[in-house]
Amino acid sequence: MTQDAHQKKTAIIIGAGPAGLTVAWELLTRTDITPIILEKSNMIGGLARSIDYKGNRMDIGPHRFFSKSDRVMRWWLGHLPLQHVDNMEFIRSYQTKLGITNQNQRLDPETTDLVMLLRNRKTRIYFLMDLFPYPIALNMVMLLRLGFYKILRIGISYVYSILFPIKPMKNLEDFYINRFGKELYLTFFKSYTEKLWGLSCREISAEWGAQRVKGLSVGNALKDFIMKLIHKNKSIDQKKTETSLIEWFLYPKRGAGQMWETVADKIRQRGGEIIMNFNVDKIYQKEHTVIAIGGHSLIEGQKKEWQGDYFFSTMPVQELTKSFMGEVDQEVREISDGLRYRDIILIGLLLKRLLLTDKEYPHELIRDNWLYIQEPNVQVARIQICNNMSPYLVAAPGLVWIGAEYFCQVGDNMWERDDASLVQMAQKELEKIGIIAERDTVDGVVIRQEKAYPVYFGAYQQFETVRKFYDQFDNLFLLGRNGMHKYNNQDHSMLTAMVAVDNIIHHRQNKENIWAVNTEKEYHEEK
Fold it and tell me: In the listed set 454, 477, 503, which residue is the last one of a domain according to the structure?
């Protein structure tokens, strides 16, 4: 796209998370449009940022850098090249497929920070104070740990669900029972899901299950188990593997946030602007065009307005609607106000050791990247083991750095507790279920994150009305997880940004292809 220098255009982007930074980079490298990013916080990366606590880094929720989109994989590796590994022929073939030209670099994480690590994926369920495969695997481990009688009940329940499915599916519980059988649902899905959303599965839309589980099923788990016995999949792209079953992923040496900090630096170097600590609270429009954005600095309090030609919003839809100046349908405002979110408290614990060990490697740190806590007698829902994401996330050798995740709501009892009591709560709960000993804690920190998960119940059922309202503004693009109120992973958020720039370049006004990301087969876990 070429433009007269006197008519150079500007894009105003709300939010410096994966979607906002991706759209800025795409504009800088593919168009003559200058991006200006307005970020409310003092940190780059949004929900994919990494917190630094005394040299120990931790993500807001664990992030795997894996996508079935070659475009996304190429993008990531273009910013942070892959480390040198012994099986270079295995890696070279994949990088050649992606068209990556820096594949001959012998990058060593010991000598450079700007590198992507190749990590083995291991994620399990912690239940009955024991470790179970995640996703559910039909193998001897499951049989030995649950027992023959329990496995038999799971099998009978699954067959029953196939022969007599619940119709129509009214809620998430119906969805899980139809997909996995009642016994497996009660054993491995119910407790964690209700911790996450703070509601009974009977109160959550079945659409949530379709969005997150997709191709995962007992049948696919059985097929995956049989295929591994017959043939080891050595394809690094893993496109024939369900996303929930992948065996490797990429990960930046210094955490997920390092990717976005690196991209932000490059955006500034190319002439893009990133304004931190700026709260957008006014969006001005004329007819079906956005003409300016206004707000104020959270540090100095100074007000400012930004005019532009294109506007990209990754801010929560609820806040976007409240910021809209001028006429907005009352129904749109009511639905936006009724949208709900789930918030998260992340409690980082620096430990001398874990009590929990793997029966295969009893004298080593367990190899899991994170654990899903299915135990119903504690509130902790998930645990990150940062050492296994990247050993470089831990400042002191020999210590274990974990993040205990608690799902809550802003203003509830947990959210309002002071940091010291939250650290103590995490210590006691994890000791209660045999994962740590409280006395082994060296240090602790609490991180609160609002609007971590947009939810698919409440006013969401009428969200199409809100979407149609915003789609009528030709130069306004809603992107990313909170920007679209859609439970996207970071690669899907990036793809919404890429497709939006595609549309600008090709003068396409219809935004259906942006909303189709993570719903079309190309982005599904099942083909």
Answer: 454
405 shares a domain with 379: yes
| % of the chain beyond a pLDDT of 90 | 68
Are the C-beta atoms of residues 153 and 183 closer than 8 Å to each other? yes
Rg of the chain, C-alpha, whole Å:
23
Instruction: Please give the structure tokens belonging to residue 161.
Output: 């669900």
Look at the alpha carbons of 404, 407, 410, 411 in this order and tell me if their dihedral is positive or negative.
Answer: negative
What is the arithmetic mean of pLDDT over 153-175? 92
* CATH number of the domain to which 320 belongs: 3.50.50.60
Rounded CA-CA distance 480/497 in Å is 8
| 3-class secondary-structure state, position 354 | coil
Which domain, by its residues, includes 360? 341-454
Q: Is residue 70 part of a domain?
A: no
315 token code pair: 């801010």
- Whether 443 and 470 map to the same domain: the answer is no
| Residues 151 and 222 both lie in one domain | yes
Residue 212: inside a domain, yes or no?
yes
SS3 state of residue 212: helix
Q: How far is CA 416 from the centre of its chain?
A: 25
Tokens of 362: 């009893």
Q: How far apart are the first and last CA of the chain?
A: 34
d(CA 24, CA 275): 13
d(CA 491, CA 468): 24
Write out pLDDT tens, residues 231-276. 555 455 555 554 443 578 899 999 999 999 999 999 999 999 999 9
pLDDT per residue as tens digits for the range 478-525: 999 999 999 889 999 999 999 999 999 999 999 999 999 986 444 333
Say how many C-beta atoms besides its own lie within 10 A of residue 139's C-beta.
14
How far is the C-alpha of 365 from the C-alpha of 361, rounded, in Å?
8
270 & 328 share domain: yes
Please classify residue 313 by burial: count the beta carbons closer than 10 Å to its beta carbon, then call 0-12 exposed, 13-18 middle and 19+ buried: buried
Is 462 inside any structural domain? yes
Q: Which of 393, 427, 454 is the last residue of a domain?
A: 454
Residue type, 509: Q
Over residues 266-298, the pLDDT tens digits come to: 999 999 999 999 999 999 999 899 999 999 999
Give the predicted TM-score (pTM) of the model: 0.88
> CATH code at 420?
3.90.660.20
d(CA 140, CA 121): 20
Q: Which tokens go with 222?
A: 């059985």
Residue 100 lies in a domain: no
